[in-house]
Recover the amino acids of this structure.
């Protein structure tokens, strides 16, 4: 029974209590949850999160109050508790403290969330367990995993999440096959959020199946320089809201320019503030970046492809392979503190 | 609330009394709390957890000592709070808060076995009753000594083979 375990158990108790309060009395329960979170937060990221949450929830007619109570009503309580603790405590409190300690000592940037690109042909027998295991040791408790038509072992990704129950996994599915597999899976998936790509033809059916199993689910829209206008027009958000989505990610594709990314980022921030859509909106890379800057002296997205190639904001990291090198060496080669830049654009 | 509970039984305190004492409107009170039971639970949860989280590197032993020290410092309040039973009472809330910690301790000793739930419930109730009695009797045993006694009582959990029970091993 060490300090980490005690603190995590306290966080779990608080999450359970908050969820129960929200179920029995949504308005007061949400305030209770936010007050509790704000009271206990010591790290900058959760403090900022609860400060903003309080401000947004106090707005008259706040869309977020109904959204929170909808999510609590529809998603399995244990899943909410687990993801809430893994993100809010393990990643943003415990993990962020570890990151700061290691960065100071080792002299390279450690991202709070590691991107794993599994939608690519991989050498046989590739195991990502080692990467996640080493990531945890230096404070990385959140993993953004991309899977799609070229993913060879989708079931293996769920096994990965089960092997690390105190980490948060967000699985972005880029193909109908992967989405279907995830939607029909019987694994508990307590520490997983499944995100379905917006343009998939079976998305509504898979979202329905995920909803039946009370999974934590999202929709993501990949935008480019050419397609950003359809995002900015509000069409995607109107449709997501009409379909009953709760979480929406906007993700810049690999060729997207910085100016387009900035426009979408500003649009998302504006929508969040105005609460025009009853949705939790995130512009993935800029929001990950934002949290990174709150934790570290610098920010920088690090993406590991399943063949071992490593990408940062400045492109492919030369002379390093994540399959053959320890993660610490990968991050050292890829992102020493003086060289880190912001959004990936790769 | 603490001042009120030092003066009168919990059952006789009204929300009006609470609001009058702290200069808060009833509307503000009900904005945050469902009822006075909710307030008592909130006080415990926030004060106790703040104490634990601000302390240096808690482990199981330090955690137990902290619980006892906290209750000792606030004994007038908690003698009153423990006197209330039933749904959403502090008694129930305290047991629920303790449960995962006792469960982990029991699992360390007997493993994930058939009777670990039994031991967990037994020792959670025992801990709660022991603390309640200690406070009601004036908390004359110093808190650190009381924590040691609790620890010794916990060490009575049979380690390893809980199947000894079915073989008449108790």
């Amino acid at each position: 029974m060490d300090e980490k375990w005690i603190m995590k158990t306290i966080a779990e108790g608080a999450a359970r209590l908050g969820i129960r309060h929200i179920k029995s009395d949504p308005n007061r329960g949400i305030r209770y949850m936010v007050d509790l979170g704000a009271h206990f937060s010591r790290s900058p990221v959760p403090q900022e999160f609860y400060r903003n949450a309080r401000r947004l929830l106090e707005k008259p007619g706040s869309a977020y109050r109904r959204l929170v109570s909808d999510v609590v009503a529809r998603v399995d309580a244990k899943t909410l508790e687990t993801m809430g603790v893994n993100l809010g405590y393990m990643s943003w409190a415990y993990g962020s403290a570890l990151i700061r300690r290691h960065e100071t000592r080792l002299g390279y940037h450690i991202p709070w969330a590691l991107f794993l690109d599994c939608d690519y042909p991989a050498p046989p027998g590739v195991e990502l367990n080692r990467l996640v295991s080493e990531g945890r040791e230096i404070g990385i408790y959140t993993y953004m995993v991309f899977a799609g038509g070229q993913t060879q072992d989708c079931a293996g990704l769920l096994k990965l999440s089960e092997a690390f129950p105190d980490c948060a996994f967000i699985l972005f599915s880029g193909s109908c096959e992967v989405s279907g597999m995830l939607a029909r899976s019987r694994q508990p998936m307590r520490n997983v959020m499944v995100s379905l790509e917006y343009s998939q033809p079976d998305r509504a059916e898979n979202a329905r199946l995920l909803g039946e199993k009370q999974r934590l689910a999202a929709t993501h829209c990949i935008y480019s320089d050419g397609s950003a206008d359809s995002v900015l027009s509000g069409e995607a958000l109107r449709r997501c809201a009409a379909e009953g989505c709760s979480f929406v990610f906007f993700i810049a594709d690999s060729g997207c320019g910085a100016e387009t990314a900035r426009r979408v980022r500003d649009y998302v921030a504006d929508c969040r503030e105005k609460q025009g859509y009853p949705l939790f909106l995130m512009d993935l890379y800029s929001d990950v970046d934002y949290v990174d800057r709150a934790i570290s002296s610098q920010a920088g997205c690090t993406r590991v492809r399943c063949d071992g190639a490593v990408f940062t904001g400045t492109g492919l990291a030369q002379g390093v392979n994540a399959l053959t090198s320890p993660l610490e060496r990968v991050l050292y080669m890829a992102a020493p503190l003086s060289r880190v830049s912001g959004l990936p654009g790769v | 609330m603490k001042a009120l509970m030092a003066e009168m039984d919990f059952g006789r305190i009204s929300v009006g009394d609470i609001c009058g004492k702290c200069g808060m409107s009833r509307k503000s009170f009900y904005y945050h709390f469902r009822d006075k039971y909710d307030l008592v639970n909130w006080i415990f949860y926030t004060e106790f957890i703040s104490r634990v989280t601000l302390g240096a590197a808690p482990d199981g032993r330090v955690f137990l000592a902290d619980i006892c020290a906290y209750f000792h410092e606030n004994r007038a309040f908690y003698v009153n709070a423990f006197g209330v039973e039933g749904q959403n009472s502090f008694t129930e809330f305290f047991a629920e808060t303790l449960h995962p910690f006792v469960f982990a301790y029991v699992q360390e000793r007997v493993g994930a076995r058939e009777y670990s739930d039994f031991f967990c419930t037994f020792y959670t109730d025992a801990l709660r009753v022991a603390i309640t009695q200690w406070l009601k009797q004036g908390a004359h045993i110093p808190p650190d000594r009381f924590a040691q006694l609790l620890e010794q009582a916990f060490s009575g959990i049979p380690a390893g083979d809980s199947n000894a029970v079915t073989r008449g091993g108790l």
